[in-house]
Amino acid sequence: MEDIVVQSNQNQSVDIQSLNMRIQQESAFVEAVTMEMNKVIVGQKQLIEGLLIGLLSNGHILLEGVPGLAKTLAIHTLATSVKASCNRIQFTPDLLPADVLGTMIYSQKNEEFVVKKGPIFAHFILADEINRAPAKVQSALLEAMQERQVTIGNHSYALDEPFLVLATQNPLEQEGTYPLPEAQVDRFMLKIIVDYPTKEEEQRIIRQNLQKVFPQASAVISVEQICKAREVVTEVYMDEKIEKYIVDILFATRNPQAYNLSHLQHLISYGCSPRAGISMAKAAKAYAFIKRRGYVIPEDIRAVCHAVLRHRIGLTYEAEAENVKVEDIINQVINAVEVP
């Protein structure tokens, strides 16, 4: 087989075949991590893939689903298989920023103030029911997510790498909640909808939980290997045509009439931000890496498109009155934009 060399948009030639072989070697651990997670988590393929994409592309994830769908179990299992630290923070209306970040406490022994770090100092953070905490706590968490550091007193402390926040929202209960503002929601790379299991999966879940010993995941990769894998993910080749495909999808949400989608004009209050394009490109590269491929194809974009866009498109009152969902708009946009 002849070497395939293409000219990248940075005027550098890329040897696709050798890059592909390298990615196949470097991504071997993905199968091992997935197997360990499948020991504990029944079904939920979309959730497991989303966690891996977030981990490999240094992005945070917003989860929406009713209680009891293994959201907490999934991140604990991922942390175990990666041999990383994991903390769970239950967000409540009386939570304070110091409860998440940490605070200064007075040491009588040393007669000085010392820093007591909060639960945010871990590789994986499960922010349970993030919309139950007031705006001050939400902004403290989201600042840590964006800056990868926390300021306590006069000093800033870098957070551990990799650092992944998995925030959950309950779609059923709205009483006593503080919905995340659009600008803060935009900081999450992906929004994953966790659905109910099938009948067969439900039966397996019941059987698994009635066993004497509940299955446990084993550590199959280290934190250092994950950090190295992230560097490799950035090397996954993305053609200029794929970049233009991403831009077209974004612009179709902002100016639908330019893509023969005039009927969506009154349904969309605002389209996707530039951060959506960055997230889609990173997520597509991570998805290609998971599929053990050294280059991005249009199917990778379509695979991550819903998770990247569903929390970044605003609907008008007319859309809600007509019972139009964000998923419907994304489907129409994807079908209307020409595939390279």
Strand order of the largest sheet: 4-7-10-3-11
Mean pLDDT: 83
- The H/E string reads EEHHHEHEHEEEHEEEHEHHHEHHEHH
Strand fraction band?
15-25%
Task: Please give the radius of gyration in angstroms.
Answer: 21 Å
CATH topology of the largest domain: Rossmann fold
Biggest pleated sheet: 5 strands, parallel
Number of strands: 13
Shape: globular
Helix/sheet category:
alpha/beta
Individual helix count: 14
Overview features:
five-stranded parallel β-sheet; globular; disordered N terminus; alpha/beta; Helicase, Ruva Protein, domain 3; 340 residues; 45% helix; Rossmann fold; two-stranded antiparallel ribbon; 2 domains
Q: How would you describe the overall organization of this protein?
A:
The chain is an alpha/beta fold and 340 residues long. It folds into two domains: 28-94 and 120-235, 3-Layer(aba) Sandwich (Rossmann fold); 236-340, Orthogonal Bundle (Helicase, Ruva Protein, domain 3). Helix content is 45%, strand content 16%. The protein has 14 helices and 13 strands. The protein has helices at residues 16-26, 28-40, 45-57, 71-82, 97-101, 135-147, 182-185, 199-209, 223-233, 240-254, 274-290, 298-309, 317-321, 326-336, and strands at 5-7, 13-15, 61-64, 86-90, 102-107, 112-117, 124-128, 149-152, 155-158, 164-169, 190-193, 268-270, 314-315. A five-stranded parallel β-sheet has the order 4-7-10-3-11. A two-stranded antiparallel sheet has the order 1-2. A hairpin with a 5-residue loop joins strand 1 (5-7) and strand 2 (13-15). Helix 10 packs across helix 11. It is globular. It starts with a strand and ends with a helix.
